[in-house]
Amino acid sequence: MIVVNTEMLPGYHIKEVKGLVQGNTIRAKHVGRDMMAGLKNLVGGEIKGYTELLVEARRQALERMLAQAEQLGANAVVNVRFTTSAVTQGAAELYAYGTAVIVEEE
Fold it and tell me: Is the dihedral of CA 18, 71, 26, 77 positive or negative?
């Protein structure tokens, strides 16, 4: 499956548009990560626990979006975007979306 964040795919033409596909996950903060984050706020630097949490959330949202594209018979997803939003205090949604298409090499 080809996945790009552009509207077009160089070297290919879009034969058919299958439609919008999406994937999401909602993740809550972990108490242990919160304590480490509080310490990092005092001294500065990357909060690796949160970085890992977001990397895993993006991976899962992307996998869910691609599964939906495969169900539609697509072989590519173009114009892929990610967005986040707070759901409740301590939990956030990561949402991936794009357009499922069938592409052919030019």
Answer: negative
Asked if residues 81 and 98 have their Cβ atoms less than 8 Å apart, the reply is yes
d(CA 26, CA 49): 16
pLDDT in tens, 42-71: 566 776 777 788 889 999 999 999 999 999
The CATH class given to the 2-105 domain equals: alpha beta
Full-model pTM: 0.83
Distance CA 69, CA 55 (A): 21
Helices (H), 1-106: 31-43, 48-71
Phi and psi, residue 16, nearest 5°: -155, 140
Would you kindly state where each structural domain of the chain is located, as residue ranges?
2-105
